[in-house]
Structures are given as C-alpha cells and as structure tokens.
Amino acid sequence: MYINVIGAGLAGCEAAYQIAKRGISVRLYDMKPQKKSPAHKSDLFAELICSNSFKADRVSSAAGLLKAEMRRFDSILLQAADVSRVPAGGALAVDRYVFSEYVTNTLKSNEHITYINNEIIDIPDGEISVIATGPLTSDDLAKSIYSRFGSALSFFDAAAPIVTLDSIDMEHAFFESRYGKGDGTDYLNCPMNKAEYDVFYYALVNAERAPVHEFDVRDPKVYEGCMPIEVMAQRGYDTIRFGPMKPVGLTDPKTGHRPWAVLQLRKENASGTMFNLVGFQTNLKFPEQKRVFGLIPALKNAEFVRYGVMHRNTFLNSPQILNRDFSTKENKNIFFAGQITGVEGYMESASSGILAGINAARRLNGQESLVLPDTTMMGCLSKYVSDETVVDFQPMGANFGIIPELENRPRNKQERGQAYADRALEDLENYLESVIL
User: Would you say 375 and 168 are in contact if contact means Cβ atoms under 8 Å apart?
Assistant: First the structure.
C-alpha cells in the first residue's frame, strides 16, 4: 500500500516525510525540473520563492509558537532550517540553497519514498492522496480541481530583490539590528535623510510596473502580507517610513542620530555574499527596480542577482471544501495541504503538510484523524480553513487573534504571548498523550 503526495514544495515534503516515518510507502510526484511555474527557478524540493525568513523564532510570538509545535512532530523543514540558518536577529532565516538541498537529499534517500518526476493533471481517484501543489498549481491540475470542487480563489504575491554584498556602498551603510538584538551584524542598514527619501519616494510611486502575465488571474487581489513596496507607498508619504523602512531602534554611526528612513538588508546565504531587500517585494519592471532602488545611497551601484517579481497565488474556498483534518468533504481519501488551502506563510504551509500527511497515514491505517486543540496554533489554523461560517475567506497566517482568549489575560504583550505559548504547548502534550502517533 502507498500514499500519493503531489507536489514537493514545503507542505508536500512535510507530508511525505510524516507518512514515510510511519513506514508507509510514498509516491512523491513533482513536475520540476522538466516543467516549472513562472515563479520557480530551482530544481530542488522545498524551494523558497519569496523571502528566506521564517519570521520570529521566540516561542512567545505567534510564528515562534507555530515552529515549537512543528518541532514536536519532528518537522523536516525545521531540521533543514537548523542546518542552513543565517543570522537574522530574532528571526529564523536560512540559506535557501542549503535549506532545499537538505530536504531534497533527505527525502530522496528515504527508503519509503519513491520520487516520480511527472506532472499530475487530474485528481487521483481510488487512492489516498495529498495534493500539495501550492499557490502556483499548474493550469491543467487547477482546472481539474475547479471542475471537481467548483470553487477557487486567487490573490497576488510578490518577492523582493537580492543584491551582492560587494556592490553595496559601505560608506552609506552600517551593520546593526534594531534595539541591539542579535550580534550586531544580522542586518545591513541603508539610511536616508529626508531629502534622499523624498527623491526616492516620488520616483517609487511614479515608476513603471511590470505587466500581469497570462498565468495570472483577472481582477487581482494583492495579499497584505506581501504588498509590493510601490503599492504600499501609494497609500501615503509616511506609509513605508512607518512600515518596512521604519528607522526606530537604529542609530546611524556617521551622524549619531536616527535616520529619516532605513532600508534593511538581510543575509540571503550563509557566506553573506548576497543580501535581500527586507520588505521590498515589488512588481516594478526590472530596469525600474535598478533605477529606483539605486536612488538609495548605499545601493547606487548595486548588482542585482535577482529582481523582484509578482505572481499568482491560488487557494481553495477551503471552508466549503475541507474537513478539519485537511481531507475533502467529498472524499476523505483526498487531502489538500499548503498555501492552496488558504494558510499563508512558509511555516503555516509546512504545518498543514504535517497534519495532512499524518492524517493520510492514519486514514490508511484505519485510525481516527488527528485534530489538534483549538488552543494550539496548528489546531486553530486548521479550524480556520475548515470553518463553514467564514463567508469572505482570505488567507490566514499564524497570529494570536485566532486563538481562544486567555482566562487571565496579562496586560504586557510579551507576557501575554508567553502565556498563549505555555497553554498551547501544555494542551498539545496532553492531547498527544491520548493518541497513538
């Protein structure tokens, strides 16, 4: 007996790993490298399309709690993240090549996993399958899903550019993390005074954008979590200065004062030869990116190894389609996982793959599905995407707003986050003691 896993992205890799851990054969399908979506470049599994950051690592944060819960299930992606980690202050960031290479080698060497390089265009019937084809599901399979379930939604996502360290003008840049977090070299800061910011801002809001390609949908919606910097800037002069370019917690050593605005760069690889522009997701034309971002003094001669891009993200109307264990209401042998379910974020996608994989294995073994407590981050995310009362369904990332309120709610934000985490991890342990994994 075997289980199909379709898609070797973040969720698919987690699902395949969880199934194989239970001694069950996995047929892992992926269309790369013969065929790639417009946003994919690498031939490896678990490719990181946008940022190389998995957000905050501290357990008292929503993102950190999610990772702590995933570690309880032996997440392969967090194994890979630990191996490929690069400095990023309080965030967990990785060298994306080392990260994907670890996942690829680990899964391909697993005796229970058979990798099949083939594009699946129809939903398998009569077999237990996990569909984890991501937000850029190929057109043929997307049509098959739509015809089967009759409901799909879309929004647009964007990625930030990457520049080489050698091309950054260090006379106009300095290493420092906000409020002194990390070892002081986690972020490279590109400060601007008011006059420099004014020139940059007005060039940005008037720059020419790239056209929407045929693979994208009509009437696009831009997801707030990956808002292109030029779209955000059009909301007002101070929007990005109080957002991704906020200078708080930083002091320019040249002036001894806080800058008017700051672009932060974060290491893209372990050797620190490449840096990505934090919060600078964009859909500007490539020459415009070089021209406009080059108005930032530190980047006047920057060499771009990757320009920012914008692409379609497709997700299901999951509350009408999915059960809480990520199986479909129509056929409990078919599971979905990843961003296609409407969870938003790298780790959120991976966590859904963990649960879908475990529950597919339990389905094969005749066991009841694993449904985690509402007080856990993984549990409340699975509840959100399967909640039939949700009318205007939109992607959701990890946050404390979707977790039931605390009985004795601390006033301090840090203490409140820690209280959420303590309760979640205790409830998770108590629940797992009552089931056979």
Answer: no
For the chain, what is the mean pLDDT? 91
52 within 8 A of 276, measured Cβ to Cβ: yes
Percentage of the chain beyond pLDDT 90 is 71
* pLDDT > 50? residue 143: yes
- From the list 55, 15, 6, 136, the residue with the least C-alpha distance to 347 is 55
pLDDT interval class at 221 (50, 70, 90) = low
User: What are the two backbone dihedrals, phi and then psi, of residue 364, each rounded to the nearest 5 degrees?
Assistant: -65, -35
Question: Taking the domain 2-152+315-433, which CATH number applies?
Answer: 3.50.50.60
| Mode of pairing for the β-strands spanning 174-175 and 187-192 | antiparallel
Residue in 213, 263, 257 with CA at minimum distance from that of residue 233: 263
Helices 76-84 & 346-364 angle (0-180, nearest 10): 140
Evaluate whether 134 touches 338 at the Cβ level (below 8 Å): yes
Start-end ranges of CATH 3.50.50.60 in the chain? 2-152+315-433
**Model pTM above 0.70:** yes
Residue 367 is classified by DSSP as P
Report the DSSP beta bridge partners of residue 275.
Answer: 163, 267
Q: Determine the topology of domain 162-308 in CATH.
A: Elongation Factor Tu (Ef-tu); domain 3 (2.40.30)
Residue limits of CATH 2.40.30 in the chain? 162-308
* Minimum mean pLDDT range among 214-218, 221-225, 301-305: 214-218
